[in-house]
Amino acid sequence: MLRFLARTMLASYFVADGVKAVRDPGASAGELRPVAERVVPLVKSAAPPQVASLIPSQPRTLARLTGIAQVIGGISLATGIGRRMGAIILAATLVPQVIAASPLGGRSTDDDDEEQRGRDFLVSLSLLGATLLASGDTQGRPSLGWRADHVRRDLAKSADKHLNRVEKTAEKKLDGLDKKARRAAKKARRSAKKAKSDLNL
């Protein structure tokens, strides 16, 4: 119940922010300008031509797409349907905000603006941390990594037990063969002694 409430509270911010960005992309387009000017050209140059032509470079379009992603990710996180993927999507939408509010986004000449940017940076960074935590939440169940490690250990233990069993069986068989060989040698010696005594007669 606590996890559901926490996820819903976190998601509400993104759904509200996403709806606002879809309705009025101009408000958040300014934050995405550094991404549109610096990151998008790099992505376009690295992507295949068919993909590069589909990547938007206008800040307003990027703002709308980010808003849509935030609404989808927020609903996914709140409802629990694909919650971890939803949290990853939300974390990805925060990266431009973190860059824009960070010192990498350029400095403002106005001290009040600079102070507000510092606060925005910390809020965005905190939300990024929260979404990354949510993306790794397994709801108390063991993660795939833990399960794989557990299976590996169980297999190693099982293999060790099987090897010990095989070694013990082999040792028993060797002991049995050794006893049989000793008995046969003893019998042969007796037979030889008997034959010798018969010859002496």
UniProtKB/TrEMBL annotation:
Q: Where is the composition biased (Basic and acidic residues)?
A: 159-179
Q: Give residue spans, biased composition: Basic residues.
A: 180-194
Region Disordered, as annotated, extends over: 159-201
- Recorded GO CC terms: membrane
Compartments (UniProt record):
Membrane
Q: What is its main location?
A: membrane
Q: What is this protein called?
A: Putative membrane protein YphA (DoxX/SURF4 family)
Which Pfam families does UniProt cross-reference here?
A: DoxX
Annotated signal sequence range: none
Membrane topology annotation: Multi-pass membrane protein
Origin species, per record, is Naumannella cuiyingiana
Transmembrane in keyword set: yes
Q: Which key words tag this protein in UniProt?
A: Membrane, Transmembrane, Transmembrane helix
